[in-house]
Specification:
mainly alpha; 60% helix; rod-shaped
Length: 196
Amino acid sequence: MNNDTRSINEMSYVPAEALTLEEIERRAITDALRRFNGNLSQVAASLGITRQSLYRRITLVTEWVLFRSVIRTQHVASVGMNLLREQDYSSRLAKVGYPDADRIVTLFNDLIAQIKAEKLHAGEQSHLLNLLIEASPLGIISLDRDGKVMIANKSASRIFGCDIKGRKLSDIPSQIASCCASLGREKTATLRLPDN
């Protein structure tokens, strides 16, 4: 068995239609470099090419590998940014076999897992707070920056005499609403409600 035949047999099996010419050449050169411990004269002879041709091909293969590494890393970063932009916290990136890209993948997946856990925790806290607000016998309201009621529990609607969500306090026909509307920011007041 000659060296060229052994070289092809030792390569991991991949269907021929899945390999590009560059990949076949890269594997043949890499295998020959391993077999001859980097002796370029022996590698060139085993591949049936001159040493100068081997240098050119090694340079081309190296450039191609570096180019693919940069492209894959850029692609991984692009996919990750799109997932973040879409707020898709359930997806994960797969490693691509290039150390720099794989480090980005690992970091991205760890960050996404942390963001997902924090969003889940915040959602649970928000849900609990909403349940407490709704169950409270006290009237609780929250206004947005424009002075519209964002949150109002059933007790607040009962106290104001109508559904007040989405309305400005100044537009609600109620003595308590006008008193609350006149309060400054972060001010408090105690009001006596009629006993009816």
